[in-house]
Amino acid sequence: MKTKNTIGHLSALLTIIIWGTTFISTKILLNDFQPVEILFLRFLIGLLALFVVYPHRLKGTTPKQEGILAAAGLCGICMYYLLENIALTYTMASNVGVIISAAPFFTAILCHLFLKEEERLGANFLIGFVVAMAGIILISFNGSRMELNPMGDVLAVLAAFVWACYSILTRKISSFGYHTILTTRRVFFYGLLFMIPMLFLLDFKLDISRLLRPVPLMNMIYLGLGASALCFVTWNFAVRTLGAVKTSVYIYMVPVITVVTSVLVLRETITFMAVVGIVFTLAGLFLSERKLFVTVQNSIS
């Protein structure tokens, strides 16, 4: 059990490391693609990849289970990413980054209300949330002037809440006992299905020639195979193993990974305030879930 928990923590960490670096690929692809085009193509690639990796059918599901899988696809694949992308058109990316990072708090509240098997919220989690959010604000705004835009900020809050709903649904799906790849693939299918109507509203163009160039192709493959196919499987496995609250706490690390990656890859300058923000964020992560560090340490030693 201890080894399985360690694998769960490592799976969550791997997922966050990859998700924290996807902004580079997305930024590059935005030169040639609309946000909805990137979103649809990456999950289509992810769906096809999961078919190749595990070519088996998901059998024996009940109508209620299919409804939960569909709801997960609507929340985690379609609504979350669309809300996030639309929010970015109304407000600053820093605002969206800070608000989205509140998803673990929403997840903890929903788990406390609806999942009785999850651990009760303690003072450490709440203190850790406050410290981590302070760090994320320092990283995201980095001393710049904060600007509030009601439309964009509300959409970002909705995106964070929708991701929390997805985490709850994923925890419920894990209790079905099906293979993680099979359920993830079904969630992808429903997410793409719900996304189709939005393609006609958000200027989607089916122009595959844009992927004939190496740079767009490699970045789309990275998003499709890495950030979608691999990461959603590892994230869902982590939720299944650790629970929604413990896994969602790793989201605090996304801004940290983003800053470090921007320095290493884009050669951006890291400021003193960003360093302080990283320290605060990691401290908040430690306070929120000290047991995960003890678990990993005991497993290694």
From TrEMBL:
Domain of life, per lineage: Bacteria
Predominant cellular place of this UniProt entry's protein: membrane
Record keywords, A-Z: Membrane, Transmembrane, Transmembrane helix
Membrane topology: Multi-pass membrane protein
InterPro entries documented for this protein: AA-Vitamin_Transporters (IPR050638), EamA_dom (IPR000620), EmrE-like (IPR037185)
Domain EamA: 7-140, 151-287
Keyword Membrane assigned: yes
Pfam families linked: EamA (PF00892)
Any one GO CC term of the record: membrane
Subcellular location as annotated: Membrane
Name used for this protein in its record: Permease of the drug/metabolite transporter (DMT) superfamily
Organism of origin: Hespellia stercorisuis DSM 15480
